[in-house]
Amino acid sequence: MTGTVLRLIGVTQQYGSGSTAVSALSGVDFDVSQGELVAVMGPSGSGKSTLLSIAGGLAIPTSGEVVVEGQHLSEQTPAQLARLRRRSLGFVFQDFNLIPTLTALENVTLPLELDGFRSRVARRAGRDALSSVGLEDKSGSYPDDLSGGQQQRVAIARAVVGGRRLILADEPTGALDSVTGEMVLKMLRARVDAGAAGILVTHEARHAAFADRIVFLRDGRIVDESRRAGADSLLAAR
Amino acid sequence: MSVRQSLLAILDQGPCYGYQLRAEFDRRTGSTWPLNVGQIYNTLDRLERDGLVEKGAVDEHGHVYWEITDAGAAEVRDWLASPVQRAQGTRDELAIKLAVAATLPGVDVADIIQTQRRSSLAQLQELNRAKYAGANPDGPEELAWSLVVDSMIFSAEAEVRWLDHSEQRLALHPHHAMALELSTDKPKRGRPAKAEVSVAPEKAR
Questions:
Q1: Residue ranges of the alpha helices (H) in chain B?
Q2: What is the pLDDT of residues A36-74, one digit of tens each?
Q3: For chain A, what are the domain ranges?
Q4: Model-level pTM?
């Protein structure tokens, strides 16, 4: 595991002001390194989604710093921020968020084309990304022709295409059955093992178990962190 | 644990000798509950006594092949067709701990829950790693093993969900509305006065 890909330093996010101010996050320090998948858990309203939005540059914190691949988000112009999001960050949502009128390959290559990549280069990178999630034979399929699990794998391919290093996944298995959800998580885990970094927001402990580290939020604060267990096997054999 | 019925179900596939039966049980359960050969022979003796198996041929190595009887095959069918009734009334140490802790003034139950959740999640991570440690979790023997691990994973997950639920319920009572001081009421006894005198306090629980 090398290199910190994302760092949140003393991040606070407040909504409203004065006596009615509500803190969604309070002084959160958080980092994710290359090859590391961190799960974020906590009850509804604990700040999980706010943390993900801030990590992805979709929301600007009231105070504190967000550093993605060494770049302070607060120092970026809106155009630079948009470019950083396109080049460094990949989002995976519960509802897949694929564009229904584009094929799987077109969905995956869209961020690259928006970023000015030549079509041929983008298509090659797109095919590589689809192949990395086992969907090389579905590049011409439209989202409606794919199962939920396949759509989410396309979304993961889109999140990692072109060497993106930070995957932000918000309840990515929420719309999937348990076996399909597990396949998607294995795929996410494999992408992280191949060199990405990931944040997985989930309320399912079984899925958080795919992570190297589990961070608990309560009332906007990190209250605990659980690391992967040591070598002691819990099982009688193997 | 349904060792008796499991061994019988394996014998329903064909005659086996003792060690062979143990190996078959192990590979079908991922060696999660290893049996010693003494348990195997004890079980076979009881199955023979009940008319469910009988001794068959002996090979050149002296292995006695046990065969299932018609009554044994019928028991296997019954077993497979019936739901497993889990034992009721087993005391759940964690549920008791949490219930009592929630009534103690000055005790932060949220901390107790978090400590337990951390432990359960570490267990889940370990189980998850074990599940995917093999080359092919969907191969026949690996699948049997990973189904057993899945059962442990879902149990651990259920515990975490219950902890989450308990935490949220307790959060509705931030000022320890549940905290109970020691009661000054004398508890009513459920036994006749005569019996109370003769029963030692430890045994009365």
A1: 3-11, 18-28, 37-49, 70-81, 93-101, 109-131, 140-171, 193-198, 201-204
A2: 999 999 988 899 999 999 999 889 999 999 999 999 999
A3: 35-59+75-227
A4: 0.79
B3-81, what's its fold? Answer: Arc Repressor Mutant, subunit A (1.10.10)
One-character DSSP codes across chain A: --SEEEEEEEEEEEES-GGG-EEEEEEEEEEEETT-EEEEE--TTSSHHHHHHHHTTSS--SEEEEEETTEEGGGS-HHHHHHHHHHHEEEE-TT----TTS-HHHHHHHHHHHTT--HHHHHHHHHHHHHHTT-GGGTT--GGGS-HHHHHHHHHHHHHGGG--EEEEESTTTTS-HHHHHHHHHHHHHHHHTT-EEEEE-S-HHHHTTSSEEEEEETTEEEEEEEPP-S--SSS--
- Note the ipTM here: 0.77
Q: Which residues of chain B have pLDDT under 70?
A: 1, 88-91, 135, 137, 174-179, 190-205
Question: Taking CB atoms and an 8 Å limit, are B118 and A186 in contact across chains?
Answer: no
* Total residues found in chain A within this entry: 238
| Stretch 55-84 of chain B: residues touching chain A, C-beta under 8 Å | none
Measured in angstroms, the CA of B118 and the nearest CA of chain A are apart by 6
CB contact under 8 A, B126 and A224: no
What CATH code is assigned to A35-59+75-227? 3.40.50.300
